[in-house]
Write a structure and sequence with these properties.
With 191 residues, the chain is of the alpha+beta class. The chain has helices at 5-10, 61-76, 81-100, 103-114, 120-138, 148-160, 164-183, and strands at residues 18-23, 26-30, 36-44, 47-55.
Length: 191
């Protein structure tokens, strides 16, 4: 018999784990600690597998059924839904890592490691150059995708204003941050 919203809401923890089946392999796993988790039991290439669909109430009965149906569609195409979920998770983790290693994040990390050797006035100059001249142009770019031309564009912007000395300083900063990124393994070569 299919589950109802009321039966899912009222499911209580017992001495041992409880499984409330909805149909099509979908069930609600109620742990002795009281957690309610949606699971999908299915067979792929002759092997029985279990797919986690999420926790109740974050995932409602309706959402769990929708996820079950999506998984069944993948199985009909001879695609393992667990593998699709694993690949999506890996892609999301790679994207998160890439966004955590933007030029700004790497430059701030470099700055925090170097600043102790500098006077307060020098720290302010370096941070000002980074925040006002490099971050607006390069800050959001993932460090792994930065090319020498990107640094050149930021430096040429200072040159076009006639600030030649500042342009030289920006080139030095870009080089120092790039060397740091290379040393800590965020890029394969010194941009």
């Amino acid at each position: 018999m299919p589950l109802s919203d009321t039966s899912v809401r009222n499911a209580k923890a017992q001495d041992k784990a409880l499984k409330l089946f909805d149909g099509g392999g979908l069930f609600l796993f109620v742990s002795p600690a009281g957690g309610k988790l949606w699971r999908l039991k299915y067979r792929f290439q002759g092997k029985e597998k279990l797919l986690a669909l999420g926790a109740y109430p974050d995932i409602s009965l309706k959402d769990a059924r929708k996820k079950r149906d999506e998984a069944k569609e993948l199985l009909a195409k001879d695609i393992d839904p667990a593998e699709v979920k694993r690949e999506a998770k890996a892609t999301a983790a790679a994207l998160e890592l890439e966004m955590a290693t933007t030029f700004e994040a790497v430059a701030r990390e470099w700055f925090s490691k170097k600043r102790h050797a500098w006077t307060l006035g020098h720290q302010k100059k370096i941070l000002s150059r980074l925040e006002n001249q490099l971050f607006p142009i390069l800050g959001a770019k993932p460090f792994s995708s930065i090319e020498p031309g990107d640094f050149l564009a930021a430096i040429q912007k200072a040159e076009s204003r006639g600030a030649i000395e500042t342009a030289h300083r920006l080139a030095q900063l870009c080089g120092q941050v790039s060397r740091y990124a290379r040393i800590v393994g965020l890029t394969r070569y010194n941009v």
